[in-house]
């Protein structure tokens, strides 16, 4: 459910202080934060935020299209390593595709 317009966007106070200090001094160093729940506000545009994903801080350069989204949306927490399945079937498909592509590439060169 969306947050009430009357309340305004939620941004942690400690993060907002860091953003205001960085924009006042024109500092381009990444701002390290653990606050994934904070919303991106227009004051953050142009800054680099290092958002914690549970393991490390992911640097994110904020642009105007990100305003209104949460910080956590831009630092993924899960690493997808592929679906489990028959690895031999996947390798056979790749080999068949490579074999089909090789004669097609050689045929135009032989015609010249």
Write up what this structure looks like.
The chain has 112 residues and is an alpha+beta fold. Helices cover 34% and strands 12% of the residues. It is built from 2 helices and 3 strands, in the order H-E-E-E-H. A 3-stranded mixed beta sheet has the order 1-2-3, covered by helices on one side. The longest helix has 25 residues, at 87-111. The N and C termini lie far apart (65 Å).
Short description:
With 112 residues, the protein is an alpha+beta fold. Helices cover 34% and strands 12% of the residues. The protein has a three-stranded mixed sheet with strand order 1-2-3, covered by helices on one side.
Main beta sheet strand tally, sense and closure: 3 strands, mixed
Shape: elongated
Number of strands: 3
What's the mean pLDDT score? Answer: 88
As a percent range, the share of strand residues is: 5-15%
| Structural class label | alpha+beta
Through-space gap between termini? 65 Å
Helix-strand pattern = HEEEH
Indicate the percent of residues in helices.
25-40%
Any key phrases for this structure?
single chain
Write the layout of secondary structure elements.
Blueprint: H1 13-25, E1 31-33, E2 48-52, E3 57-61, H2 87-111
Parallel strand pairs: 1-2
Antiparallel strand pairs: 2-3
């Amino acid at each position: 459910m969306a947050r009430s317009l009357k309340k305004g966007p939620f941004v942690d106070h400690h993060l907002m202080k860091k953003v205001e200090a960085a924009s006042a001094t024109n500092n381009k160093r990444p701002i390290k934060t653990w606050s994934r729940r904070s919303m991106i506000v227009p004051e953050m545009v142009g800054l680099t935020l290092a958002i914690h994903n549970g393991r490390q801080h992911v640097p994110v350069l904020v642009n105007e299209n990100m305003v209104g989204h949460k910080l956590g949306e831009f630092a993924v927490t899960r690493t997808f390593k592929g679906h489990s399945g028959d690895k031999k079937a996947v390798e056979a498909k790749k080999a068949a595709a490579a074999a089909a592509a090789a004669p097609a590439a050689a045929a135009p060169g032989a015609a010249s």
